[in-house]
Specification:
With 336 residues, the protein is an alpha/beta fold. It is built from eleven helices and 13 strands. The strands form four sheets. A seven-stranded parallel beta sheet has the order 3-2-1-4-5-6-11, with helices on both faces. Helix 3 runs parallel beside helix 5. It is globular, with a radius of gyration of 19 Å.
Length: 336
């Protein structure tokens, strides 16, 4: 199978690429290597593929319409995994135009490329952030998600709607994956675990929002990638039971589906920090802060639909996942 991965220098993209290469697939990676966070970390992720004959890389911004058009004209892909996006809830408040360019314009270019080159399956990253003001836990794909609380979340919901229109109009098989707080080795420096680890090791106070009264469905990277691969291998199909009188947002009469990928085991933020302290052998100094705009207090994924569709349910504990992250962090940054 030949798979294009956008955002291949990213946390999830690079880990997914490695797994696909290991099983014998060809991977064509695309990334613009922007400086939202440390570009050297992105380059280090890419260096892991330099000895793989089945890996190709092109530095390209998915918002570049002409560049994306040429790419799809020159190559044929069995599947496309779109992970390229401007990430971060809080950053979307500070720099909204970046989200319009990458998450809306860029995604439209992906859809057009897949349509014209007849890609067999488009899988794309959505986010647990789409649940926004919803408070009924666990979050279900079958629930309405029309009340986002950040532009980032709104852009991800827009991706789901855009994909459905292409599934309807052109029969393009599309599957959206709502990721829940992904963490693990090679992670993103802007996310909590990375910031907490750095702060504790450098004897700096770590920022703890909502004064620690947060609950997250932390999902380990290997579980995310396993779920993604199983979904890639099973293109979305029309749901014969879909009813327009009672429309289900998770499925469709068109070849379209949406799945949560989460651990279904919510963990209190203070417990997350406690496990990290144990792994580092060092106590954290906490800077207790109010809730940030665009944040939500709790997340939990209902993963029954994913399990039913592909036979997989993430289950890595935070104790194991954080330990693996700390091992990687110390190895990569040379910590003790």
């Amino acid at each position: 199978m030949k798979v294009m991965i956008t955002g291949v220098a990213g946390f999830i993209g690079s880990t997914l690429a490695m797994r696909l290469l290991e099983r014998g697939d060809s991977v064509y990676g695309v990334d613009n290597l922007n400086d939202y966070y440390d570009v050297n970390l992105k380059k280090a992720r890419l260096e892991r593929f330099q000895d793989h004959d089945n890996f190709m890389f092109q530095r390209l911004d998915i918002a570049d319409r002409d560049g994306m058009q040429r790419l799809f004209q020159e190559h044929r892909f069995d599947a496309v995994m779109n992970l390229a996006a401007q990430a971060g809830v809080r950053h979307s408040i500070e720099n909204p135009s970046a989200y319009v360019d990458a998450n809306l314009v860029g995604f439209a270019n992906i859809l057009e490329g897949c349509r014209h080159s007849r890609v067999g399956h488009l899988v794309f990253a959505s986010s647990s952030s789409v649940y926004g003001a919803n408070t009924h836990l666990p979050f279900s794909e079958h629930d309405n998600v029309d009340h986002p609380v950040s532009l980032y979340a709104a852009s991800k919901k827009a991706n789901e709607l855009m994909a459905h229109s292409y599934a309807h109009l052109y029969g393009l098989a599309c599957t959206g994956l709502r990721f829940f707080t992904v963490y693990g080795p090679w992670g993103r420096p802007d996310m909590a675990l990375f910031k907490f680890t750095k702060g504790i090791l450098e004897n700096e106070a770590i920022p703890v929002f909502n004064r620690g009264e947060m609950v997250r469905d932390f999902t380990y990277i290997d579980d995310i990638v396993e779920g993604v691969i199983r979904v890639i291998d099973r293109p979305a199909k029309p749901d014969p039971s879909w009813d327009g009188d009672r429309p289900d947002p998770a499925t469709s009469y068109a070849p379209y589906a949406v799945f949560n990928i989460g651990n279904n085991t919510p963990v209190k933020l203070m417990r997350y920090i406690e496990v990290l302290e144990q792994c580092l052998g060092k106590k954290a100094e906490l800077d207790l802060l109010p809730m940030q705009p665009g944040d939500v207090a709790a997340t939990q994924a209902d993963t029954s639909a994913l399990d039913a569709a592909v036979g997989f349910k993430p289950n890595t504990s935070v104790e194991h996942g954080i330990e693996r992250f700390v091992e990687w962090y110390k190895s990569y940054y040379g910590g003790n």
